[in-house]
Structure formats: structure tokens, C-alpha cells
Amino acid sequence: MTGKAATASRDVTGELAFLTRALKAPTLRDAVPRLAERARAESWTHEEFLAACLQREVSARESHGGEGRIRAARFPARKALEDFDYDYQRSLRREAIAHLGTLDFVTARENVVFLGPPGTGKTMLSIGLGIRACQAGHRVLFATAAEWVARLADAHHDGRLQPELLRLARYPLLVIDEVGYIPFEPEAANLFFQLVSARYERASLIVTSNKPFGRWGEVFGDDVVAAAMIDRLVHHAEVISLKGDSYRLKNRDLGRIPAASHDPGENP
Ligand code: ADP
Ligand code: MG
Q1: Is 123 in the pocket of ligand 1 (CB under 6 A)?
Q2: Distance of CA 119 from the midpoint of ligand 1 (Å)
Q3: Is 118 in the pocket of ligand 1 (CB under 6 A)?
Q4: What is the pTM for the complete model shown?
Q5: Atom of ligand 1 nearest to the CA of 124
Q6: b/e for 197-222, b at 16 or more Cβ within 10 A?
Q7: Closest ligand to Cα 121
């Protein structure tokens, strides 16, 4: 380091430490000395130096925060909204997903429901939106309906259902995948209802199902419970119905798959 640089850094080091702490920007703090040296060596303009510093912090935030939240969300796979093939899934307007991708629904505490037969992209779209939310700074948790119920049943048996629901309320977005593949026992249906009610107008859900709402009575073993749940779920929700053949069977000459679009639970 030159004498001049050492004098300058002695003057501003403490200030930088304070300011980067105030900004919660530790990567920026760590990057400044090395970037400053390079800037001096390579005669960067002030603007170039500032851009390089900010770039470090932005990349760190994108990778750390986003990555950490994505890992914590426990998505079953990595899927990007950008990779969704709208030419294959003709029932879906690109703009509808682009709009959801802005995450206004999370801010507004609204829900998204994807309905449709297997392989039409419900899980992919849920993951894609969930990852977007993670990258935008929201905490997300992903699980299947059966996994959510198992988790709530554990909490219930330990007498900590309410604390668990309160804890989950701190997540702006929960994804409940695969409602309908496995019918619920009455206790499970009740726990599921509590989860949906606890989040109503407080935080968002993305729910996917292979069954139209008209058949949720069968899933929950009770038409009244199903109706009350659907009521809360869709009051503030974007409901998207996907149609068509399974993307999994694309380009595979299997002929028609018998009844796959109706009851995969019985024909997995
Ligand atoms: P679902 O949850 O509706 O059963 P998935 O979202 O799991 O279906 O989709 C099945 C597979 O096909 C996944 O690997 C998914 O990424 C892919 N897929 C489905 N639809 C599309 C699409 N329109 N464009 C690209 N990939 C798709
Ligand atoms: Mg799925």
C-alpha cells in the first residue's frame, strides 16, 4: 500500500466499518480494501470503483440470502419459471404467470391455486414461484399436503399446534403440493383446515391439486369442511386450471393413458 492510501484508509476505515454495519453489508466492507487497491493500480474512475463495490454486495446478497432461503424451503427440485414451455401448456397465459412472478400476491397475502391433471406443471410452477419469492427475500416452505398434515399432527400430539401455526405464520409463503392424491382422515382434514384458516388474510399459500374443487369433499371426507376450506382459500386467490397431457409423457408414444387425467391417486 502507498503512504497516501494508508493515510486515507486510516481516516475512513472506522467510518466504513460503521456505515457498512448500518447498511448490513459485510461483503461490501470486506471487498473495499482489495477493490480500492485494484482501483488505484488500474486507475478506475470513482464510478467504476463504486459500481464494483456495489456489485460485490449485490452478488453476495443474491447468492447468500436467496440460496439460503431456497435451501431452507426444501423444494423437491430446482425449477425456474423461465423454463416453463407455454407452447406445450396451451391452457396457461404467459402473462398470468408473469404477473404472479412479480410476487404481488405475496405482498397482498393472497393465494395461488393450481388445479389440473398430473404432469401439467403444477409442481414446477409452484417451485418456480417459490424460488422467486426466496430470491426476493421472502421465507418459504414447501411440502406435500401429506407432509404438512404429518407435521401438524406431530405438533398437535405434543400439544403445540397453536405455537406451530404461529411459527408458520412468520413465513410469508407456504406451498402445499398434491392435495387430493391421498384422501385425508378426519383428524388430518381438521388439521389441514386449521392451517388454511390460520393463514387466511395473513399470509400466502400456493396449493396444487389434481382434483377439481367439486371433488375436494371426497378428499377431505366431508363436504362441509371442504366447502369452508375452499371458501377461505379462494376468497383472495388466483385459481389457475391447467389442462392437457402430461409433460412427463411428452414425445413418448404411449397412446392414451387410461383415466390418468382423472384419478392418479388410484392409478399412480
Ligand atoms: P404436476 O405437478 O402437475 O404433476 P410437474 O410440475 O411435476 O407436474 O411436471 C412434471 C415434469 O414435467 C416436471 O419435470 C416439470 O418440470 C415438467 N413440465 C411440466 N410442464 C412443463 C412445461 N409446460 N414446460 C416445461 N416443463 C414442464
Ligand atoms: Mg406435482
Answers
A1: yes
A2: 5
A3: yes
A4: 0.76
A5: 6
A6: ebbbeebbbbbbbbbebeebbebbeb
A7: 1
For the CA of 178, the nearest atom of ligand 1: 2
Grid coordinates standing for 196? 388454511
Per residue in 184-203, pLDDT (tens digit) is 999 999 999 999 999 999 99
Task: Give the DSSP per-residue string, the chain.
Answer: --HHHHHHHHHHHHHHHHHHHHTT-HHHHHHHHHHHHHHHHTT--HHHHHHHHHHHHHHHHIIIIIHHHHHHHT-SS---GGG--TTT-TTS-HHHHHHHHTTHHHHTT-EEEEE-STTSSHHHHHHHHHHHHHHTT--EEEEEHHHHHHHHHHHHHTT-HHHHHHHHTT-SEEEEEEETSSPPPHHHHHHHHHHHHHHTTTSEEEEEESS-GGGHHHHHT-HHHHHHHHHHHHHTEEEEE--SS-GGGTT----PPTTTTT-GGG--
111-130 mean pLDDT: 97
Q: Is the CB of 180 under 6 A from ligand 1?
A: no
